[in-house]
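debug: dumping io for the single-chain case to check the tokenizer round-trip. Nothing else runs in this session.
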Amino acid sequence: MAEATILVIDDDETLLELLSDYLGTAGYRPLAASSGLAGLHLAADEQPALVVLDVMMPGVDGWEVCMRLRDASSVPIIMLTAKSTEVDKLRGFRLGVDDYVTKPFSFAELQARIGAVLSRARLATEPRRQFESGGLTIDIDRRRVTCRGRTVVLTPTEYRLIETLSRYPRRTVPTELLLAEAWGPQYAGELDHVKHYVWALRRKIEVDPGDPKHILTERGFGYRLE
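debug: decoded output
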């Protein structure tokens, strides 16, 4: 994965230098701007993955920079502020700020917040992988299964089995393939494992496990998720 570009805008040049070195060591591509205008130009030219923005700067302050950034893009923004009042935070969130860090702060804390904001931004832009049919939902990204509106509590093996079936929706999956993907190649030939866990899954997701509507058996071949 390509390194994420992080733009830091702050009039404290010592902080800029130290923070840039730290972010570079952490695996990011840091960019630094010591004024609001310089930061806006860098943001337009470089299209960073995230902006770390100081509020208190001479000339064009952080609030103005934030508004201009929001007019042009949806780049995630973390504000650096010496204030921690609720009014300031509400103002920032209304402008589209993603997170706040109050000075003084540790670089490790800021790195953790950068990672969290970038993760949320990626999840927001990626389509969620999930299977839905007849009241059954398998959310692969969240590793969550719900059935008719209730959360289904599964063992790790049960989840691996139903997730494997969900990757081949409405197609019969050979029992040997289910064994290889949900248990591993060392279980080759242990077909009763699949039969046992399919029954366990049916008891948790089917209205009538004896007359299944979700996990169907193709005798002599395998199973499919309908």
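debug: round-trip ok. DSSP finds eight helices and twelve strands in the chain.
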